[in-house]
Amino acid sequence: MRSNLGFFSDEKFRSIFFQTLVVGLFALGLFFVITTTSYNLEKRNIATGWSFLQNPAGFDISFSPFLEFKSTDTHLKVYFVGVLNTLLVSITGCIAATILGFILGIIRLSSNWLLSRLVYIYVEFSRNVPLLLQIILWYSILIQLPRVKQSLQVLDVFYISNRGLYSPRPIFESGFSYVSIAIVLALISSFLINRWAKKRQDKTGQQFPVFSSSIGLIFIVPLILFFILGSPLSFEHPELKGFNFKGGLVIRPEFIAMFLALSIYTAAFISEIVRAGIMSVSKGQREASAAIGLKQTWIMRLIIIPQALRVIVPPLTSQYLNLTKNSSLGIAVGYADLVHGFGGISLNQTGQAIECMAIVMATYLSISLTISFFMNIYNRSIQFKEK
Amino acid sequence: MNEMNAVRKPPVATTGIIGWLRINLFFNWTNSLITLFVVYCLYQFIPWILDWTIFSADFKYNYLGEQITNQEMCSRNLDPENGGACWAVIYVRFYQFIYGFYPKVEVWRVNLAYIMLAFALLPLLYAKLPYRKYFLYFTYIFPVIAYFLLNGGLGFTEVSTNKWGGLLVTLVLGCTGIALAFPIGIMLALGRRSKLPVISMMCTLFIEFIRGVPLITLLFFGMVMLPLFLPEGIDMDGLVRVLVAVTLFQSAYMAEVIRGGLQAIPPGQYEAAKSLGMSYWRMNLLIILPQAIRISIPPIVNTSIGLFKDTTLVIIVGILDLLGIGRGTLADTNWLGLSYEIYFFVSLVFFIFTFGMSRYSLYLEKKLKTGINMGAD
Predict the structure, then answer these.
(1) Which chain B residue has its CA at the smallest distance from A344's CA?
(2) Does one domain contain both B2 and B84?
(3) B27 in A contact zone (CB under 8 Å)
(4) Could B217 and A328 be called an inter-chain contact, meaning their C-beta atoms sit closer than 8 Å?
(5) CB-neighbour burial class of residue B368 (10 A; exposed 0-12, middle 13-18, buried 19+)
(6) Which residues, 6 or more positions from B166, have their beta carbon under 8 angstroms from its beta carbon?
């Protein structure tokens, strides 16, 4: 039947034919887009190229906690400020969402009906209302806080007003670097102790107080060093001058709104993932560990969570990716992240739409790939190892 | 003898309401303390929220009995001590929330489209609908009818899309995005699993690229870059540009969901189809896809919920959907400061749609679990 098609019925020929056809059509489309685009750009007097990155930006960025930013700085610096702000809200958001999500996921499985129902209501509400709406809602609550003059005072050092949260800024003096070195060394050594203790327990069955020794190393040793060096740390308190605070550390309402909305929204999804993960561990595991006399808290820590993590981590990774991508919604409340600062204001001022969007998309792609890369390594480390 | 064998009732404390309360709320003393604490918090919170939203709230008239036309007449602004929510803003602006700036004379067309949408969705939602086949024909031609009905043409007066707004835009974006992304997603999923390396690579690159960038950058792409890519004279409508971005975005996610379904089909199905001499397309259309789509319907609904929520992002590029109308109302000096009422209302509308969809997906999941038995062994 097929033979009358001749060489076309040959699978190899067809495969090459179709692939060449697709590549050809794609190249044709690309050629068409490039020629029309260059024609359009020429007509609108937009020069292509990357030189605009060196031009002064000419606008201010209100929230730039890591880099000092002036309006005479370049667009390239706008980009770096944007990347840092995106990373800041994504990382803090991921940490908060994970903690909140795990707590809520475990509470959701609690035997207390009222408590688990309450978490259920929270989960349904926060994941069925658009995130953008939640961000805007949080922002509108925060800017309705009292004005600076009537700002709420917490513990005499924090001031909460519609301009944000003012707190003392730590000033590190010369000796403080030794303390931070001590903390890093303590972290490394407690990690090594942990590994050594695990190996020894596997071999001999003897246990070592890893937790308390790590606490001692990480907190007490640097603290002693801190006092020996004469407390090389002071705080600059915010002071009310005129209509605003001077000095101190300020966290803007845009950041707080983004942080709250992102972490609360994502925590709802994470709590469902955690719940599914814990429920995936078979009942026999719990019963068996109870039968050998483990305490309730130990059963959770040593038996249930390690097995549940295998189910939890892959969807958790995609939640982290979502949160990072969702941080781009900062534009709605004027949080100067990558999309708002560089992809929004810089793009409008320079008119270099293609270059700006390409940089923004490439940056998000690299952030996403980095997160998946590290989470995949972590995922591999917790998967079941066959001996 | 009789007395000993008589069936004795279980202890009172383990059955009925008392037993339920004991097991679920007062199992031990920590549990009881938590219960009491939660009850106390609810006792404080619920009366307050009910009072604010219902009992002290204005719906159309303020507490003086006057019809509210601006925020100064709201009870909560006249009497801050006792006033609750001022829902009058929703009442006054209801038309805009539902239809945007659609001309009032032509509004029956939108209403008709809403009703027809419900009928078009019926056969998709209920597999056991009587005369489902005929309903499905209607579903297929509905997009064409809706286009002419809403946009104009064929004797209807033209209504430019910049007059559309509110729920209308939200539903148009959501439904069109989902409906268009479905076939594109299937093609991408098949392409990614294709044995032809070039096609598989191109589909994979496209899917991973779209999934790696935020929707907002795609919307910017549609708004700022798409006009540059097109030859002169072709002027794309703002709503269409956004729709292109939304569809591209959704089709990548749809593709991944359908790929999941394709992976769950046991290889025996492919082998059996091939041994009957079916071609690639016949095999996929008649054997593989019907099964794959059937098991991936719950995740398809879930990504559709995500898209429905994400349609709110279009306000950033200046399209007035439900949230956009809400923000526009807040910018009006007549309704300044009523942000809680407006955001509450908009959230509620979204919640009704998305919660309904998520319940539906749960129902389907349950039905699938009992209904079919995939992969014999």
Answers:
(1) B220
(2) no
(3) yes
(4) yes
(5) middle
(6) B96, B97, B98, B99, B100, B320, B321, B322, B325
Same domain, A314 and A360: yes
What is the residue range of A37's domain?
2-43
pLDDT of residue A132: 93
Residue B269 and residue B193 share a domain: yes
Specify the pLDDT at position A5.
59
Distance CA B192, CA B332 (A): 50
Asked whether this complex has an ipTM greater than 0.85, the answer is yes
Quick one: B265 and B291 in the same domain?
Answer: yes
pLDDT along chain A (387 residues), means of 10: 60 83 90 85 77 78 76 83 91 94 90 88 92 92 80 76 79 77 87 87 82 81 79 74 72 90 95 92 91 88 88 89 92 88 82 85 92 85 70
Judgement on whether residues A272 and A338 belong to the same structural domain of the protein: yes
Contacts of B221 in chain A (CB under 8 A): 357, 361
Q: Do B209 and B84 fall into the same domain? A: no
Task: Please give the model's pTM, rounded to 2 decimal places.
Answer: 0.87
Note the pLDDT of residue B370: 60
- Using an 8 Å CB-CB cutoff, list chain A residues near B347: 129, 133, 137
The predicted pLDDT at position A320 comes to 92
Output the domain CATH number for residue A100.
Answer: 1.10.3720.10
CA–CA separation, B200 and B206 (whole Å): 10
Please give the C-alpha separations between residue B208 and each of B225, B255, B261, B301, in angstroms, as whole numbers.
20, 11, 18, 21
| Sign of the CA dihedral with A18 first, then A19, A24, and A25 last | positive
A278 and A343 in a single domain? The answer is: yes
B10 and B79 fall within a common domain: no
d(CA A118, CA A104): 10
Classify residue B126: in a domain, yes or no: no
How crowded is residue A208: how many other Cβ atoms within 10 Å of its Cβ?
A: 14
Ranges of residues in chain B with a pLDDT under 70 are 1-4, 13, 370-377
Count of domains for chain A: 2
Asked whether the beta carbons of B150 and B138 are under 8 A apart, the reply is no
**Residue B62 structural domain:** 56-88
Whichever domain contains B190, its CATH number is 1.10.3720.10
pLDDT digits (tens, 9 = 90+) for B220-247: 888 888 888 877 777 778 888 899 999 9
Question: Quick one: B11 and B60 in the same domain?
Answer: no
A227 and B CB contact within 8 Å: no
Q: Say whether A130 and B350 touch across the interface (CB within 8 A).
A: yes
Q: Is residue B154 part of a domain?
A: no
Length of chain A: 387
Q: Is residue A155 part of a domain?
A: no
Q: Does A23 touch chain B (CB under 8 A)?
A: yes
Nearest to B360 by CA among B146, B121, B120: B121
**Whether residue B308 sits in one domain with residue B198:** yes
**Both B319 and B179 in a single domain?**
yes
Contacts of B245 (CB under 8 A, 6+ apart): B215, B218, B219, B221, B222, B223
Any bridge partners for residue A167, and if so which? A249
According to DSSP, the residues that pair with A159 across neighbouring strands are A153, A166
Query: Can you tell me which residue has the tokens 């392409």?
Result: B191
If one counts the domains in chain B, the total is 3
